[in-house]
Structures are given as C-alpha cells and as structure tokens.
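FIELD: query
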Amino acid sequence: MPASIRLLATVLVLLARTAFAHEGMWIPTLLKSIEGDLHTAGLRITADDIYSINHGSIKDAIVHFGGGCTAEVISTQGLILTNHHCGFSAIQEQSSLEHDYLKNGFWARDKAAELRNPGLTATFIIRMEDVSERVLNELGATKDMSEAQRREAVTRIGEAIAQEAIANTHYQAVVRPFNYGNSYYLILTETFRDVRLVGAPPSSIGKFGGDTDNWMWPRHTGDFSMFRIYAGPDNKPADASDSNVPFVPRHALPINIAGVQEGDFAMIFGFPGSTQRYLSSYAVDYIQHTADPLRIKMRAASLEVIDAAMRNSDRTRIQYADKQASISNAYKKWIGEVRGLKELRTLEQKREQEALFTDRALERGRTDLQAVLPALKDLYAQYVPLAIARDLFVEMVYYGPEVLRFADGFRELAEEQVKLEADGKFEAKAAERLRAVPGFFKDFDAGVDQRVFKALLPIYRASVPENVQPALLKEIDTRFNGKSDAWVDDLYARSILVSESRLTAALKLKPKKFAKVMRNDPVYKVSRNFFRTFLEQIRPQHAVIGDRIETAMRTYVKGMMEMDPGRTFWPDANSTLRLSYGKVEGSQPRDGVVFGAFSTLDGIMEKYVPGDVEFDVPERLRALHTTKDYGEYGVNGTMPVCFTSSLHTTGGNSGSPVLNARGELIGLNFDRTWESTMSDIQFDPDKCRNISVDLRYVLFIVDKFAGARHLVDEMRIVREPVEASLPGVIQLPIHR
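FIELD: result
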C-alpha cells in the first residue's frame, strides 16, 4: 500500500476511535477498567455499585425477561417494569373478546387479581467470570480441529466449569463464547418461573403510533407493562402456586421524577441480543444488497394481507396482533438498516479497513493473517446461495403461513407411528397434540393464512436457487399450469390441518389410520417437503461453510486485536448483560433535519385521529390533557412522554432501564430511531439514538390515567435532581 493511502487509512482509524467515544456494550465485570471514563462522562456512583457479587448492586435489579427482553425491579415486592411490546404476548394470551386487555388495558386491583403466565420467566445474573484461560488451555492446539469438533470440546469444557459453579446451589450456569471464541465467560443465573401480569395500558397508549411510528422519531408511545415475580416462601424460584409470595429483590431501582435535561449523563443496563461490529466486507455486501432486500420483500407481502384483515375484524385483530408486530418490527428495521449502511458507506469503510489489515499483515510477515481475507472472500462466494435458501426458508416457514410449521408438529405421529405404538407412547402423544389444537385455532384464520401463502410463494420461487427448492413446488407447473394461487387453493381445500373439527376428529382415529391420513394430507406433505429440503440439502452445507467462516473470523478478529492494540475491542452483543453509556440528546441525522431530544403529550394530541387503529387516543387521556391534570409528573404545563439519548442499543435492550448518574431510573428503552438501525453493524455517534419512554409518563399513566396509585406507592420515588446533590462520586443507596 502506498504511504499516502496508508496514512489516510490510519487517520480514518484514529478518527473512528475519537468519534465512537460512547460506542460499546460493556461486559459488567470490565467496568472498573473504564471507571475513569465513566466518571469523566458524568457517572456519580462507582463501578462496584453497578456490578458487584459481594453486595446488592444495580445488576441485581436487572432481569432477562422471557429470554428475549430486559426488565427491571422497581419495588421491594418483586414488581418489574418492561415494555408493552415485551409483555405483548402475555397480554394477548390473556385477552379475549370478553376481556380485551389489548384494547382496554389491564390493571390488577390487588395481588390476588394478578394474572399468571405459564412459561414466562425472569432471570437474574448472579455473577460473570472470565474463564478464557481455562477454556483455551484445555482446548490446546485447535488448528487441526474442525469447527464442529472445537464447538463440541468447548461445550464439554464449559459444562464441566458450569457444573462446578452451581454445585450445591439452585442456580443455573453456562459458559458463553465472546469475540468469535477468542474469550469465554461463565455466567451464573437464577430463574424465576412464576411471573404474573400486573398492569398494561391500552394499546392506544402502549402501541400508540403503531407501525407508522415504529422506529421513528418523534415518538409518543407509552411502551410499558408491569409484572410481578413470585417466589417460594424461601424467596427462591418455584413453580407457579397459590402458596408463592412476592419476590424480595437484592436491589430495587429508585425512580427519579425530577426529570432529565439535554446533555445529562445516561446509561443503559440490559441484555442486548446481537451485534455484528466485526463483519467482513463480504458479509456486509450480502446483508445490504441481498439478504435485507429479499426479507423486506417477503414481509411486505405478508403485512399487506395481515394488515387488511386486522382492519376488517376485531377478532382477527386480536388473533394476529402479536404475529403482525413480530413480522413488522424486523421489516421496518431492515429498511432503515439498508439505508443507514448506504449513507455511512459501511461497505467502503470495511474494504478500507481490510486493506489496512492486509498491509499490516504484510509488514509483520504474518502469512496466516494475509490469507484470512482471501479465504473469507472465497467462502462467501459459496455461502451466498445457501444463505438465500436458508433465509427464505425461515421467512416462508416461520414468518409466513402458520400451517406449515403447525403441520410439522404432527411429524412424529405420522412418521413414527409404528415405533410409538410399540413403545406404548402413541396415545399419550396424540392426546398431547389434541390438547394443543384449540390453542392454535384460537389465533388462526385459514383465509388469512391462505392469502399469506399466495403472497409469499412467487417471491420464494423467484429468489431461491431451483436446485434447493422443495420438489413438490414443481406441481405448480406440472399440474396447475404455473398458477401458484390455484395450487395453494387446492392445498387448503383438501387439508384437515386448516379445520379444527376435522383435525380433532382425525386425532381420535386408530393410530395406523391417523398416520395414513396425515401422511397423505396435502399441507402436511408440503410442510415435510420444505423441512426435508432444508434439513437435508441446505442446512448441512450452510453449516459447513458457516463453520469455516466462523474459524476465519476468529483469526481475523484476533489479528485485528493483535495488530491494533490501541483500539477498543468490545465483544459483540450475545444476549449477555451489558452496559452502555452516553447522554440525553437529540440529533441531526440528515441535512436539514434536526430532532429535539423530547416529546410531550401535546404531540400525542397533534397526532390524534379519532377511531384510527394507530392514532386514536383514549377519552380519559384526552380529558387529562385538556385540564392539564398531570399531578407531580408534569413540567411547566406539559407532560413529558419520550426522550432520546446516545446509548448503544439493539434488540434485547427492549425494556432496559435508562439510568441517571446516580443509578436512578429515568427512562424505559423501547426502540432506536430509524436512522440508527444499522448500529448493529456500524454505530455512528452523530446519527444513532435510542428512544425511551420517560418514567414520569409511565407513572402518570399508572397513577392519573389508570387510577392504580397503589402500584406507585410500592416504589421509591426520588424528587431531587442529580445536580442538587454534592459533586463527586457518591455511594449508591441499596433499596430493599
């Protein structure tokens, strides 16, 4: 590389270090190493107050909610706060036409009225420990191992470490890889299995703005819900039972209603799902130009069908509310991600970084590192067709017509009937499936499902390489003259899987008869064809190439760390506990566009459209606005609703607490701005903002709107602004 280009690349890297001052999702055990930076940024408590294994700390109030979101403990009686969209599935399951909690909200008048949610869990982190040295030493030389063999060895070593850690305790433990397997952490957890719904605002508050406002700013969504953790009499996890009592936490977050100002220090503590900061240019190219556009196209087709059906029927609205939200969320995110990657020139920057990497490897005579990027290029040439087939299988089967994955639930009864009978297990398995039938059909509309199938099938056929498409799809050409709609109509007309009564009757047949009926069912046959094609033709090759990419990426990331020791290398998010910090601030994401940091109830009324599914406003909220009856939560005649801050977040951070400099709760994270959706791959401090609902709005809704003051009375409310306390680092009060 010419000296001038090398100098330019070095300058770019140095600029990136400066600009990305608040980029990063920090492992809590490493906070002491950046404690000085935290205090310089404005933190008023110690790293030990945030994460400690010796005494109660903020980490003891942070909950992995349902395995996919974050929640936080806000009272000494186990009350937890998370997003409305995180609790949405539980709220939807509790709803019916008679008790439409989605539309009308729900507030338990007392603990006896709180609603149980089978399968919902709340997990606390007990401790995290770096076990990299032990794992890597026991692995020894791994260059002759395949990635699968290495993974098996890591699993074996990790399980031994985990079992040692939980001996004679009721805890769970796992060893997780970080930095593509260059480091490993032991994570000790405690999981509670009795989590009850306490309160949720109506969707006109909890989902205000709907899909139109999703990922957008300004935002006016009261995206919160409340649950309570119950424990056995010994305060330990227990199965749901009338004898359980509210959990007493090691720490409960105080709530500060003095408010936030532009420029205030803020931090977020939660369980971010996945980031991909170190991707190669070949991976970014695939995401930006192939994967995201295809997935966007598939989901747009589904949403067109589902949205129309939900507008025309309250029953369908309830049935499909959770599914629609799941499909729509990623759809809009991917649109913003493609735009953001293009605007930031991420692909070009990756190529520049890779050129600098290659130059450094040449200068150091590192032949192993010189070979890694050419290897990745070759691997991605093989990987892309398989990745397309894999991605669209997921879109078709797991986010498309539900009947395809429902049919797969009958595979064992249909394919292994003889063995099940011989083992005396068929009747029990059939009874289990029979019990599941009403639950499926409660939230299923065959007509909607059929139209979704019709909408997605042409996109799938045009995009997936023909040699890895299910063979049965050829019937469309051989039997139906290429008319895919007619083929789908025929499937649904003849299948028992789209009729609750016909399926129930079939499950009561003799085992041999049922197995024959199911194996001959047209929808079942198509479902099996999709799964077999994926499992036999796509997944094995996808896994082999994916493993080779993983091996190459481990070398690549390790090489970057070795050749650039001055650069900060925080591990990609992987659903483990992380802290990010920054400040409350607006943004100027594009030329001529200036976003303030705050939104208010006035903005809700400006968006109000009577009767609109996304922008209707409850009469009670309109009345409170008219009289400006905001209680102690309002500010100078306005009611704060949401704010933005420069915190590095991703999926999984939904429901995470946004804390002030003293570790007090000021906001509840629920989204990023649309201009920030590329931050999983590239974080830009000028563009990237997370969106939080202001805790003053949360308490206003609970207290003044819902009349559930008894819940506020459980909490510790702080009314003193941070700047009113003495300067310097203070001791975190432990609230039990």
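FIELD: remark
The chain is about 45% helix and 15% strand.
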